[in-house]
Amino acid sequence: xxxxxxxxxxxxxxxxxxxxxxxxxxxxxxxxxxxxxxxxxxxxxxxxxxxxxxxxxxxxxxxxxxxxxxxxxxxxxxxxxxxxxxxxxxxxxxxxxxxxxxxxxxxxxxxxxxxxxxxxxxxxxxxxxxxxxxxxxxxxxxxxxxxxxxxxxxxxxxxxxxxxxxxxxxxxxxxxxxxxxxxxxxxxxxxxxxxxxxxxxxxxxxxxxxxxxxxxxxxxxxxxxxxxxxxxxxxxxxxxxxxxxxxxxxxxxxxxxxxxxxxxxxxxxxxxxxxxxxxxxxxxxxxxxxxxxxxxxxxxxxxxxxxxxxxxxxxxxxxxxxxxxxxxxxxxxxxxxxxxxxxxxxxxxxx
Length: 351
Ligand SMILES: Cc1cc2nc3c(=O)[nH]c(=O)nc-3n(C[C@H](O)[C@H](O)[C@H](O)COP(=O)(O)OP(=O)(O)OC[C@H]3O[C@@H](n4cnc5c(N)ncnc54)[C@H](O)[C@@H]3O)c2cc1C
Known about the structure:
Blueprint: E1 4-8, E2 20-27, H1 30-43, E3 47-50, E4 56-57, E5 63-70, E6 75-80, E7 84-90, H2 95-104, E8 129-130, E9 133-134, E10 139-146, E11 152-156, H3 157-160, E12 177-187, H4 197-202, H5 213-227, E13 235-239, E14 244-246, H6 248-276, E15 283-285, H7 287-293, E16 300-301, E17 304-306, E18 313-316, H8 322-340, E19 349-350
The protein binds flavin-adenine dinucleotide (FAD).
């Protein structure tokens, strides 16, 4: 196997940020993965597993250790009944290719996750979600390799403990397992989920039951083009800040601070935005609203900037450093905390 040294990690991330990895290898199957892990063990190296690098902020100093990029391929139908099908998808499959495969075969349940960058192995890690669907709606189980034990095992959806942008894989099991494949249960029954505000607007006047998978994918391509910069033009990891899912008490604090700093007009805007995003468990407050009301749109540190069109997105406008992004994040966090009492957290993984 080829272990490259001093490999520039900026080339492996959509932010185009990150210093070098001491060692880098890409692996296409379980044997290669085990060989790479043996290499790391022999040299006593830390290991970082990467998919498409679209949810990581890697330090300017890089990563001291071995970076393993997962390139396993394969989409397999493992079982089906009258109403549903179970797909086993290898971790290295490009996620949007999987959504395209589902569209081609008329399988429902992941169409709203169209055009999310990255690979399938990362989908359960942060319980990828958007436009009213989440990985946890469809992930049945995952197959993993223990980083230390090198044993293959499976975890069910319940064991993964999915929540908003979290699972055990990015909490207490962080850096313990390499995901080899993900099992998805998809529906054969057409079931368009168009409740999310942007989709509702796009398909206004249409008989919702008649909207096809292809139309949803086309709609999301357009909707997302206005929400995220073109990755060929600018580096980004998409939404940098998590949204808030608040308890009643936390929401009351936010209302109080909003009234103090932005008056009744601010509170009216807050109520309007909360009503737009009804949430089952808790009260959803989009961080974009807080950034907007605090006047932070377009704020920059070095070449890292809150994108004007969608301020939850931090863009690398040229040669931003991880240190710029981090400083921008800290300044934004402090300003929002001071004006609204809310502490924003970051969505990507800091490495
Ligand atoms: C323009 C843009 C838009 C985006 N939109 C969305 C969105 O709408 N919703 C959303 O949820 N996310 C969104 N994202 C974030 C990102 O695309 C997702 O989180 C995606 O799932 C990350 O996949 P990746 O393969 O690039 O993961 P990476 O960035 O490579 O890794 C992310 C984390 O997962 C771990 N990991 C990756 N693969 C494996 C594996 N096989 N085994 C174990 N651990 C692994 C890594 O160690 C790291 O901790 C967006 C990003 C961009 C750039």
